[in-house]
Amino acid sequence: MNTLHRGEVVVSHLTQIHESNGRKTHAIDDISFTIPAGKFVSVVGPSGCGKSSLLMMLVGLAEQTSGTLSVAGAPIKGPDPDRIGVVFQEANLYPWLSARKNVEFPLMLKGISTDKRADMALKALELVGLREFADRYPHELSGGMKQRVSIARGIVQDPDVLMMDEPFAALDEQTRMVMGDELLNIWERTGKTVMFVTHSLTEAIYLSDHVIVMSARPGRIVDRIDIDLPRPRTFEMTSSPEFTRIRNRIWEQIRSA
Question: Which residues form the ABC transporter domain (predicted)?
Fold first, then answer.
């Protein structure tokens, strides 16, 4: 890992074309951007624009047709949880394992000793405010708590970058706002780079330093907006004239793209 670029994400001239039964689908077309280390960046756009495809390539679970991807100064050649943590829309917890054991699971696959992985898992659960629920099973946890366990599992190996694919989409609005504040708290405490895919313009603006706006398929970047709202963010900001102006700008870009 190049420590000079620790946490930096660089996407250069990325294109992805799917081929099935002789038909080609142009999913993403020649996109380039950089996420500086430690920044929180959201990606928005209409359904089918390639947001999730982009994230899957960045976490090493899909391949690009052309272009390059790098995280922390090194190319992405496959899943690498030491550099890149990932949280998906569904928590996907193992129902027969406790919260702690769910967080420990990727550490067990790496052969980390029982005592060390238990300690690492408890520290991750403490970071997301769930240490006292370490021995609870998924059916004993609320939707928001399950997602916090999923976040703990994503950060337990202390990656430089956290990739999140609509992690709060299945939650009710109130829980979603609470989870957004908790995510910002985790981000501020850890200093990790975060790329956050969402359909919610309000969520993207509220959380982010920058918002990347993608067009309909083939996905292209049509705007990148710096969010200059002060931190810490508050719910009252969502009704401010500046917040409304940014949301309208993004909506116009998506609608006309």
Answer: 12-241
Structure tokens at 49: 């624009």
The CATH code of the domain that includes 60 is 3.40.50.300
Q: Which residues contact 236 (CB under 8 A, 6 or more apart)?
A: none
More confident residue, 3 or 43: 43
Which of 113, 137, 158 represents a domain boundary (last residue)? Answer: 158
Is there a contact between 193 and 38 (Cβ–Cβ < 8 Å)?
yes
Same domain, 201 and 252: yes
Range of the domain at 11: 3-83+161-256
> How high is the pLDDT of residue 5?
62
* Helix/strand/coil for 212: strand
- Residue 137 CA: distances (Å) to CA of 14, 94, 165: 41, 9, 24
**DSSP state for residue 150 in the 8-state scheme:** H
Shared domain check, 234 and 169: yes
The answer to whether 203 and 34 are in contact (CB under 8 A) is no
pLDDT number for residue 164 = 96
Output the pTM of the full model.
0.92
Encoding tokens for residue 52?
């999730």
Do 45 and 143 share a domain, yes or no?
no
Residues 174 and 248 occupy one common structural domain = yes
